[in-house]
Queue: 4 jobs
Job 1
Amino acid sequence: MARPSTPRPVASPDLLTAADLMAVLPMTAEVKDGHLWIGGVDTVELAREAGTALYVMDEATIRFQLSEYVKWTRYHWKDVDVVYAGKAFLTLAMVKIVEEEDCCLLCASGGELAYAVRAGFPMDRVQMHGNNKTPAELAEALDAGIGRIVVDNFEEMERLSALASERGVTQRVLIRVTPGVAADTHDFIITGAEDSKFGFGLNQGLAMQAVKRAIELPGIEFEGLHMHIGSQIFALHSFAKAIEVMVGFMREIQVETGHSVRMLDVGGGLGVAYGVPDEPSTVKDFGKVVVDGIKEECERHGLTVPRMAVEPGRSIVANAGVTLYTVGSIKEIPGIRTYVAIDGGMSDNIRTSLYGAHYEALVADRADQPREMIATIAGKHCESGDIVVKDAPLQHLEVGDIVCVCATGGYCHSMSSNYNKQVRPGVVFVRDGAWRWSLRRETYDDLMRSDLG
Ligand SMILES: Cc1ncc(COP(=O)(O)O)c(C=O)c1O
């Protein structure tokens, strides 16, 4: 999972204004009348009208990122599927955008699949992965007519074969392979042991065994291979290394079974800027390294170039989103720390408590002013670890101000909870000067909907 990227120096007021934070904000962000605007909407006014805490998603940024992936992968090879990883952020409006941008959808559960079905997403463009899909989820996927299933283990493969045979259908599958290359944000690690709960390892011959079994089983059609080497990856050479391993394996498959691999899915993982010093690779460079890398390796091994897939999640939505909160109290502990308490916390953003994620923050009402103080943005939950941003440079602020935490579009709403019976914030999409609810804020009735009393 994600790790913090660039190591952070000890925080000190950095005097940056919102104009200096554009790298972590949505592409439509601007400062007008001292306020932060996104998608042509004044975020301070929006917070007043829609209430806080509130997730704000910039539609233009999402569409742009999806189109960049389509453009810079298909620039190098005609047959590339851009499969948006719904786990990063998923609402019905998001599914619609993915469809309109000519992309596919990756589902990690029956629930995510249900979103695709409800939104009327074309099922041949849906893929399902996961290391323990239940029999019910496999059946749901088959009954929905899903495009591909990424098979993770032998039990699942047998189960899927039986379920598909019962239904008289043949399901296209990819075999998830652990290539023994793990990305470490800025570099890669060759992991001989392949200690992973996901997929089949190459070294012990399990991946080859899985491919052979997939070829012989009824009800499934072996189409190709899948990998996913990590998340928040800055080093493109880790993708290149894994591709080298995977195409080498494609050649072994050809030699040992006579079957050619028609599809190679390299997963997701491209990093994003959470902090001002972060400099992630561009989608353009990613497309070149991945697509040209596969082509060159295939040429070296004398293989036909397969159809390809990439599965971006975070890099589509993270910088498209911000979370707006209202400051409820400011607690100054002399000589120690200042805590700014906001009306949300680990229930809407678990990433800081979970793995020390770093975010930039600013005061939306004073976006043109320099960040002259350091404060820790604390949530309202009953955990001292409930911190959203530790030691954040911030503009001077007052109770009632709107704090904007940047780059929260990925893995915040999708990992949110009702801890302390907190209702989840709503999600609004902003575009061309207007905003609309994608998800309304939950109510107490929502909390008790499934409680049978
Ligand atoms: C199989 C697979 N594909 C794609 C992704 C999306 O990764 P990211 O959001 O880092 O692009 C994930 C996330 O962990 C994943 O497990």
Note: Confidence is low (pLDDT under 50) at residues 1-5.
Job 2
Amino acid sequence: MMNRTTFFDHHAADWDADRPPEEDARLDRVITLTDVHLGYAVLDVGTGTGVLVPHLVRAVGPSGRIVAIDLSPEMLAAARAKGFPSSVTFLEADVHDLPLPDAQFDRVICNAALPHFEDRLRSMREMVRVLRAGGLLVISHPIGREAVNRRHREAGGPVEGDRVPAPETMMALLQEAGLTEMQVVDEPEFYLSRGRKRQPEDGCGRVSSPIDLPRS
Ligand SMILES: C[S@@+](CC[C@H](N)C(=O)[O-])C[C@H]1O[C@@H](n2cnc3c(N)ncnc32)[C@H](O)[C@@H]1O
């Protein structure tokens, strides 16, 4: 029987062809609300074919670093084939058990992926763990909550029951994961939630040291 990883492996080849034309403008809005700056270190969780990566590359510039993780080898192969600059590292990894040290990233962003995670709270705690104090975790769905839920119902199979959390559920999850300054934007065609990691007294540091990464 197909599980989520084989489902995404199966869809990797045609993933980009199915992207709606307005998605890039919405991803730019995601980047703006993620408040990404030159030199930042950013983790892209559930990167898929890397649709967010060109936006992140522009935002962090050559002095920034992007680590993009996914569980699906085929999705990662499609992303790697795009030939991104050496500031981008792709890793095959499970968000529930990230092979990354604590407090490495200025921003952690999870675009269009959270509903597929088996244990949302555990995955969010892992994403918070690798975030620097004062950094932002962003969970986004640029086509909006209802559209995502409808797509999953129609797709059937292992993703059929995967749902974007309602705003009140997301606020509770962000808080339980250890974040503060939580916000949820829940518009008909755009969803984004974010929260800041506590203990910001020394601010959200710009990248000044290399990220300690396992080999990809
Ligand atoms: C709907 S796709 C979105 C991909 C991409 N972020 C985008 O916006 O097009 C969700 C991705 O999450 C990945 N994924 C699902 N469960 C995961 C997990 N436990 N850890 C890491 N990635 C996971 C899938 O393999 C898939 O590539």
Note: Residues 4, 8, 46-48, 51-52, 69-72, 75, 94-96, 111-113, 116-117 surround S-adenosylmethionine (CB under 6 Å).
Job 3
Amino acid sequence: MIFETHAHYDDEKFDQDRVELLSNLLKENNIGKVVNIGASFRGCKDSLELATQYEDVYAALGIHPEVLEDMTDENLDWIKANASNPKVVAIGEIGLDYYWVKEEEQRAKQRMWFNKQLDLAKELNLPVVIHSRDAAEDTFNTIVGYNTQENKGIVHCYSYSKELALEYVKMGWYIGVGGVVTFKNGRKLVETVEAIPLESIVLETDCPYMAPEPYRGQRNSSLYLKYIAEKIAQIKNISVSEVEQVTYENALRIYSKVKG
Ligand SMILES: [Zn+2]
């Protein structure tokens, strides 16, 4: 079975078939567990709702670095109040995005909220899901300061160098690998997958975005995780079932509130 560690089924692109996907279709197609990730505040509420509704769906709650307008103490209080729900398994996605956000004042706000949400995760003893784009150094330095034996996370949609990935792995963090690994211009991620142990990789779609080949550019869903597993198997010269099994166990280790 496959563990989907990062999806956004609250997105309107799933309005037509969300119920069908989450009630039967994913399970019939070997997708055992799904973590739906909050990005906006509304996305957090919707994620929790989906997790409450569907047995094998879990939620991560957090404010994404691009959604600056949702970074309010009220919203943080709501996240804190709801994080003790047994279906809430992580704080995320949180982090830094210097690709979309260029203005220094806004970047400073991202950094402040990244730290606030990391502190909250530590207080709640939950893992974190990191979004980081064009902010390798600031993200890594923040994580190094945050990392302890108990406080780990996933660097989702990993886009940096294999050397940096190895630094995260050394700290016991996980690298989220998705559709980019199948892209023609995904060479950097292929090199990362080559360099790091399978025990540090989790599978993710980031759906509805980031569909793998041969569906690049179309709406993504967890049904396409098999193409990512196949690509990793090919890179590491192992069987697809080994990729699925080991990454499933990895996901259970980091999302430890998920019932196996
Ligand atoms: Zn995402």
Note: The longest helix spans residues 104-124.
Job 4
Amino acid sequence: MEPAIVCRALTKSYHTGGTITPALRGIDISINAGELFMLVGPSGCGKTTLISVIAGILDSDGGECRLFGTNLQGMDDNERTLYRGRNVGFVFQSYNLIPSLTSAENVAIPLLLLGATRADAVSKARAMLERVGLGAKSEANPTQLSGGQQQRVAIARALVHNPKLIVCDEPTSALDHTTGGEIMELFRHEALNGNRTLVIVTHDARIFHYADRIARMDDGRIMQVAQDSADLQMEPTHT
Ligand SMILES: Nc1ncnc2c1ncn2[C@@H]1O[C@H](COP(=O)(O)OP(=O)(O)O)[C@@H](O)[C@H]1O
Ligand SMILES: [Mg+2]
């Protein structure tokens, strides 16, 4: 069986005002279905860029990235957006919640994009908010929520449409230890029981033990893939 994610010789540079910043310098990696895979490394080493390419949000310059056997680079923008909508849930570092909508309406968005009725989407969104411990805040706006609560809304939005792949940028950084642990238990459950693949960028050493494998990145490259965080040749640092 092909792994859930296969990246081969993946490269990406940013071009801004005559400056070229290499962000990925040849990434080779494969991640299995049902695996909880973490990515660690210093700020600026390319973690967000890599998960954005994997999630089909960003185009690479070279190499290939296959998701469940499908080469995203071969798709046009519409096809890729559709594929992503069905198969990928993304938790952004900055949450990206829409302030004028309630929590439940924010969580309902992926379902609405897939054609669900409003009533059905909002009812599933409420159930998902219950699962992340935020049922009581379904009708609140993001501005009325703490950072940790907003993060849980963003996580509920990434899970609500049952995507095969969930990609998260620092999902527990704004959460206290107990809530962070609860969120990781939920992710763990999703990976094991839903046969979902999770790719999680983190600096949070307290959650390393939830990972099946941890990859350490530096300067646009994967330096090491470890099964046990104790084997990582690094000091965990801050963003
Ligand atoms: N939109 C962008 N435009 C220009 N450079 C960028 C952009 N996003 C990221 N970079 C640069 O690419 C490199 C990798 O960034 P990023 O993937 O965000 O790293 P990380 O998530 O590990 O902190 C850094 O040098 C960063 O400054
Ligand atoms: Mg980042």
Note: The mean pLDDT is 91.
